[in-house]
């Protein structure tokens, strides 16, 4: 068998796999929320009708067509543009640079991270618990409150909730696609930080599929936490947004 005989996704590196998983999560959310999504060569556009820019997403595998992207989202809709590579200056197109966050990868592995005393971590399987997850994400990130569609429950997008003495205090999301687990939406309430609770809920999302490597976009402040879970920084992605 030659290299050209290997199926594309099998031969891909983790970077395009992670980009496509990010796009798939955005499309699934948009469709479940009654929004719109399109897939074009090298570009995924997903409008979840949300006030939260992290849920209205454009994922570009090549140089982004800012005019095409901006035209997809209605005026006044905030959105996030994700690129795995540096881009030209997109401010003339009305976007603002969010930054160049670290892209991190953890090899496939299981393992156990024991929650701190008084902490439990659970997968959200019911709409009532999903409402709790929504509130933790909004208050802990912080971000505009934008309820996750219950139609996502039971699919490749999975929700994880940590409780401290029964009170919801931390959240994370995993989306399994393209042979990777994409970890997003990690948030801990301010009064529960610094206790290892965010680490515990992130680990639960990370091993959603222990046979698959996990990927995430970190903040610079969060790199140390993710390193302790086995993640390694690989490169930096580029994020732009329209407020």
Explain what you see.
With 243 residues, the chain is an alpha+beta fold. The chain folds into two domains: 3-101, no CATH class; 105-234, 3-Layer(aba) Sandwich (Aminopeptidase). Helix content is 25%, strand content 31%. The protein contains six helices and 13 strands. It has helices at residues 8-11, 14-32, 66-72, 127-140, 197-206, 223-228, and strands at residues 36-40, 43-47, 57-60, 79-83, 96-99, 102-106, 119-123, 157-164, 167-177, 180-188, 214-217, 232-236, 238-242. The strands form two sheets. It has a seven-stranded mixed β-sheet with strand order 7-8-9-10-11-6-12, with helices on both faces. Strands 1-2-3-4-13-5 form a six-stranded mixed β-sheet, covered by helices on one side. It is globular. The relative contact order is 0.20.
Provide the CATH superfamily of the largest domain.
Gcn5-related N-acetyltransferase (GNAT)
Morphology: globular
Please work out how many helical segments DSSP would assign.
6
Please give the order of strands in the largest beta sheet. 7-8-9-10-11-6-12
> What's the level 1 CATH class of the largest domain?
Alpha Beta
Unreliable residue runs: 1-11
End-to-end C-alpha gap: 49 Å
Radius of gyration over C-alpha positions, nearest whole angstrom = 18 Å
